[in-house]
Specification:
- This protein is about 40% helix and about 15% strand.
- It contains eight helices and eight strands.
- The longest helix has 18 residues.
- It is globular and about 50 Å long.
């Protein structure tokens, strides 16, 4: 995955870095990456004792030195080739979202696609906006926009953090662009997502933002 990111980004720029944030994973991810890219100054590995998706992303955002920051998973749900389009659009927009629910997007797992689509429609109606994929974990954002947020209000929990990212981005009049992405079935690893738990947590997040914004 890291090598694929390097191959794609190298076609458009040489000024990039790749940060691998590992929450002390027992699968030795950090060791494997360090060994494979020990001579590369572009690849940096950070090992945290704390665990949690949203806090790991925030950790990476604070360590990133670039003007633009992309966030993506490492199981090949997120195709590195999309980074090229994101880099193109981020010069005009503040937040570029890899969306499964705009023309050209989708998922190989049609059952998950339908469930996620229905839930996204629910979130759109509840929060009264036109963003199609509120659960995307694949996006590129300007660091200047992040500096206008209060991170502690956004980056906690699991995937619900991205519902808050969109909410606060819109509140800050950010220019948002959705581009199509297609999620193939997971190539590596096992998903930690549990649909019922996610449904309850994400619903509470949307309700809180709609009726009890902080």
């Amino acid at each position: 995955m890291v090598q694929s990111i390097i191959d794609h980004l190298s076609t458009i720029t040489r000024a990039f870095e790749i940060l691998v944030i590992d929450d002390n994973s027992p699968d030795k991810t950090a060791i494997a990456v360090k060994q494979a890219f020990n001579k590369s100054k572009q690849v940096k590995v950070f090992i945290r004792k704390q665990r949690g998706l949203a806090t790991a992303i925030l950790f990476g955002l604070t360590k990133a030195r670039g003007k633009y920051v992309a966030v993506m998973d490492t199981d090949y749900n997120h195709n590195p080739s999309v980074l090229i389009s994101m880099y193109h659009y981020i010069k005009t927009y503040d937040l570029v979202i890899g969306s499964r629910y705009v023309a050209g997007g989708g998922m190989e797992n049609k059952v998950r696609q339908l469930l996620s689509l229905v839930f996204n429609i629910y979130i759109r109606l509840l929060l009264n906006h036109n963003i199609h994929d509120n659960l995307s974990g694949f996006f590129m954002i300007k660091k200047a926009l992040i500096s206008r947020f209060k991170p502690e209000k956004i980056f906690y929990g699991f995937g619900d953090y991205f519902i808050r990212v969109i909410y606060y981005a819109r509140g800050n009049k950010a220019r948002i662009k959705e581009i199509p992405v297609y999620y193939r079935n997971r190539t590596y690893g096992i998903s930690k997502s549990r649909f019922l738990k996610m449904f309850v947590t994400y619903s509470l997040t949307a309700v809180q933002l709609r009726f009890y914004p902080k």
